[in-house]
Automatic annotation (TrEMBL), chains A, B:
Function: Catalyzes the formation of N(4)-acetylcytidine (ac(4)C) at the wobble position of elongator tRNA(Met), using acetate and ATP as substrates. First activates an acetate ion to form acetyladenylate (Ac-AMP) and then transfers the acetyl group to tRNA to form ac(4)C34.
Organism: Cohnella pontilimi
Subcellular location, record wording: Cytoplasm
Catalytic activity: cytidine(34) in elongator tRNA(Met) + acetate + ATP = N(4)-acetylcytidine(34) in elongator tRNA(Met) + AMP + diphosphate
Main location: cytoplasm
Full protein name: tRNA(Met) cytidine acetate ligase
Family that this chain belongs to: Belongs to the TmcAL family.
Length: 411, 411
């Protein structure tokens, strides 16, 4: 079975995602599609608007055959670790032949040249990175600058475009991860049409970014407004989740526990959390003086500076909310890759893939958080419990769902 | 100025408290009364139903002249440390001549004999205590047993009554603390009339325990029901606080952040909090399986065993809620006593006392949390912020009130 891998968040799954999925299968000649999907907390440091089982169901209804969870250790990270974790999951299945991702240019060759240059001599990149970090630059900016320096030093400055747009950057890091992992997965890219990654206006009759759709929902308060832009199956799932009090979830849903955590911690305590770097702990403590109300949005507005992007700040607040400490998410731990594959859902074809994976997978394949005691799995189970506390009528059964919920099956 | 000290929580201040205060001044011949009062979190590990400035005002309206805050490090403790902290505050003022407390028997001489026996040879008590703790007994039970053994060994078994009723136990520990601190404050006791400490039924037309009053309020939902049992000033303050959305606060007001904290922490993390001892961290983690809903009351019901009293469990959950770690509340740190005196409110006579305290106080006298950086003061300021998050419309100004609010002045 020829199988394509896609890396997704589906927050929510919309017509643009559907197009990408269909094109991915078409250009790779795939019979089946495997999605690795962020769980409850996403790459830009935000909670998903609906839970991971609901979004896995959207994926299955839209043509994915198997949905695997990207551990939160990787999902709420800058491009480098997000990409590394996601590619590691796909690679560990042993059944994925191709990886297909969207990019602004659709120029795989140029992206792969950049990836090659950046992985060729990891020592040199690490040295440049280390020097820039010592200058006090934040990690993502330092990485970009180090990579640009290295490309320029090799006379390939024209490849620096790969570091400048979000989908290029993600794509570049998928390619780097494939190389680092020595994966046999072949990459493909599709030029992104219509709507930009985080574009917040709707400019097309049928394709809008997930960001624009979430904004539309916030403004109108009505799920029906999304109908032109999402598959009917997505809309039905969203409406069902909303009726059950499980959606929409957003950052404001976590205002009380987040502010509680920020107010009860001194700077020393704050500095133990992942992403809290460069004195951000002092800035957070000081900010309350000028804060008008206990809204996460207001806090982010106040914290934002040229140095700290909103995305970086959201990831930081998320690690504090989830209680993830620096020592739990060291580069060494992240680089050691995935220790298990967590199945969120499958179709009949996905079941066949799971059958094949009994032989091919390089790590255990599990269907519930009760099936293992890996550190990253524990973080996922706890993140799910924290997410469930944001529901309209939170209850312990929902909080422990990670231990009990079987995968979503579309049979 | 002859000055009596009283140790109070006033949750809320009722007719029984008023009687005790009036009698205390009468039997000690005092011109002025100084109350040391628990702040936002109380001896039995509960939040106060109204904030500390409201309760300080109740105290001033009822005849106290100066209200000082008992730091939360001491206030949410078993009798031994609660008493030690409270007596240390009174002693540090240098203006308090007498301490008057309620007791079931009113027998000061017997209580003081017990206190003398228990302080006479601290080494012997510590040895017995240490042996019992090694057997695995919880601290308060071990202390009681060690003290009983010591009294029996000295042929004073009849004094063991002092360890058996809550006001006897508190009184005993006030007397022990006076001896440990070498205080010149002279103790008095008043036999408690009418209503027992935690008695939950109302048995008298004008005197009911604070516990009974809080229950009455919960059942009726109407502050007016309290009118027969509290001074008119108390009622007016409570109604005002309720209208402002600041009362009533109870444990359920903290359900979301408490459950968030419990669900995001693993057992190792939980074990770092003060009061989390004897494997309670594992019991807390396991309990969610059987919990029907996210109510603190339901959690306490499930956690309660013969070994863990509800009070011990409330104190434990409180330290987790407040983020107080074992290392912040070691016996050594508690035994070192108070480093400052925090003024919550005063009358004109109280202002005279404050004037005298410029000479007499053994530690700095402060009127706001902005006036110092002592570790226990930081804990108080953060506890106030956490308390303010439970208000109906929490806002950052309320959360930072500890740094800005001047003392309540009744002039």
């Amino acid at each position: 079975m020829r199988t394509v891998g896609v890396i997704v968040e589906y927050n929510p799954l919309h017509n643009g995602h559907l197009y990408h999925l269909q094109q991915s299968k078409k250009i790779t000649g795939a019979d089946a599609a495997v999605a690795v999907m962020s769980g409850h907390f996403l790459q830009r440091g935000e909670p998903a608007l609906a839970d991971k089982w609901a979004r896995a169901e959207m994926a299955l209804r839209a043509g994915c055959d198997l949905v695997l969870e990207l551990p939160v250790a990787y999902s709420a990270q800058a491009a480098q670790w997000f990409a590394y974790g996601a590619v590691a999951v796909l690679d560990a299945t042993g059944v994925v032949d191709t990886l297909c991702f969207g990019s602004e240019s659709g120029d795989l060759q140029a992206l792969d040249s950049a990836a090659e240059a950046l992985t060729d001599e990891p020592g040199e990149l690490a040295e440049r990175l280390s020097a820039l970090l010592k200058e006090g630059r934040p990690y993502p900016a330092a990485y970009t600058a180090a990579a640009q320096q290295l490309l320029a030093a090799r006379g390939r400055a024209e490849l620096a475009f790969a570091l400048e747009q979000p989908n290029h950057t993600l794509g570049l890091h998928y390619l780097i991860a494939l190389r680092q992992l020595g994966s046999r997965i072949a990459p493909f890219t599709i030029r992104r049409e219509k709507s930009g990654y985080a574009q917040s206006d709707i400019t097309d009759a049928a394709i809008a970014s997930a960001t624009a759709l979430r904004r539309l929902l916030t403004v109108s308060g009505s799920w029906e407004e999304l109908a032109p832009y999402v598959p009917a199956t997505t809309l039905a799932i969203l409406v069902r989740e909303a009726q059950a009090g499980r959606a929409p979830v957003d950052w404001e849903s976590f205002a009380r526990p987040l502010f509680h955590e920020l107010l009860r911690s001194d700077a020393a305590e704050l500095s133990t959390f992942a992403e809290v770097t460069e004195g951000l702990e002092h800035r957070i403590r000081r900010i309350f003086e000028d804060l008008g109300d206990f809204k996460v949005g207001a806090l982010l507005d106040r914290l934002k500076t040229k140095r700290y992007t909103r995305t970086k700040l959201q990831r930081t607040l998320l690690r504090i909310l989830l209680g993830h400490r620096k020592q739990q998410l060291t580069p060494e731990k992240l680089a050691s890759g995935v220790e298990y594959i967590r199945v969120l859902g499958f179709t009949p074809k996905g079941r066949e893939l799971l059958h094949l994976m009994r032989q091919s997978a390089s790590v255990p394949v599990i269907t519930s958080a009760a099936r293992g005691h890996w550190a990253f799995l524990e973080l996922d189970a706890r993140a799910s419990a924290i997410y469930a506390l944001a529901f309209r009528h939170p209850d312990p059964a929902a909080a422990l769902r990670d231990y009990k919920q079987p995968p979503v099956m579309i049979l």
